[in-house]
Amino acid sequence: MKPYKTLLFFLSIFILLSLLSLVFPKNGIRIGNNLLLQFPDIKNIFTSEESKYADISEILEYHQSDIIENLNNLSEDTFNRFTDSLHVLPDSLKPEIKTDSITTIDSIKSTKNKRTPGAIRQNLEYPNNDKSVLYQFYSQLKNLKSSGELIRILHYGDSQIEGDRITSYIRNELQKEFGGSGIGMFAPVLIKGTTISMELKLSGSWDRFTIQSIKNGNIYHKRLGALMSLGRFAPISSSDNKMYFGEIKLSKSNLTYLRTRRFKQCRVFYGFNEKPFIAELKYKDKTLDAELIAPSHQLNTLSWDIDGTLDEITISFKGEDSPDIYAIALDDHSGIAVDNIPLRGSSGTDFTRTDLAFLRSMYQKINTKLIIMEFGVNLVPYITQDYSYYEKQFYKQLKTLKGLRPDISIIVIGVSDMSRNNRGIYESYPNIENIREAQKNAAFKAGCAFWDMYEAMGGKNSMPSWVNANPSLARPDFTHFSWKGSTVIAKMFYEALMYDYNEYLKLQENKK
Fold it and tell me: Which of 157, 279, 326, 353 could form a disulfide with 269 if both were Cys (CB 3.0 to 4.6 A apart)?
């Protein structure tokens, strides 16, 4: 083909595409539920639109030492070996990041600190500015060392906290300050692809049951307990007199804080077994204890004192019927236990669908004093103008949980920033602030404290800045924090909590 004909061909194609861009719907054409067909605007081809991402240099500057210091607090300096429990994008699908958009820790070390020492970037908020909604919890902290109690903090959340992200930092800092050790409670059967702050390996025919199991009719009751799940090593109905076996092997992880490995007791929370079963605790090949457990129709606890120097333990079960196993806990005898409870796919509205009387009894047994509720990212992709329906649902959950025990306090952590790709530019979803307001309103109506993660991150269009930072503080899905980012956001929350706790101590001192 002659050159001029080639040129005419490309010009005609360009003209046709230009005309098509003029008539193509600006918002695109949706094909099915998961595909949106868009056509580039002719103006955008010749003009480059600069993305206005939030400036997070102050955040990096203030928290740079903690990002590095946390490496030294881990069992080994292997922080880069951490892997998130979420799907990792292949290189071909990762967004192209311009080097001039990256903010590095090294590049800001010489900048002037914009905040005075001890300043809080994002404070806790309270209904009618009434900070007393957390005074019961603060009183527990104040008297903890003299009381010798073990109190629990339950950290519920969505996939943002999977793998003990965020929770592990809060746990470590609280235990350093108020005592305690161990990783707290965890489910015997984990969500597929997730981890805890120990190596866990299962043997036997284990099944996991959740709120979805209730909806599907896979279990005949609603007793899920504090972790919103249960595990079994034998079928729900087993009348064949067959002997079933289940084993949980726990070993140290070199990728966690040292304090998580210094637990002093191991407990199994179980119940509702129709037949007796045998439970054994082993260290390597040596049986440390074995018990024959009688049939039961209530919540029970199996407890062993542990030498904190053990690097590996195995809990094994055998019987013709399995109890419902609600949790395993590795704790100290006193201090604070902080439990990481990820509920993948949840928006925090399923608690009232479970057996509340049973949930109350478990909260009582484990001595729950504070609940942290961190949800929202699963709601973001479903854009609507009015989130009053979610506000009502979420308020119902908070009010119900607070009513289970008179001494439970609740802190709601609001939704994080989350970005979508709009014609090559990553921008905040337009509904995030509406979801945040619904969560805050629900929290205040229920008498709970609120911490605004969205604003703590930097507000609108802050997620791309977290993704593009060096080291990266968020994953390239523009939704979830990286491990380093989890440390930063957890530190922000912890500082806000401790700031108000210290203000409480000053208030109590002034009353004397």
Answer: 326
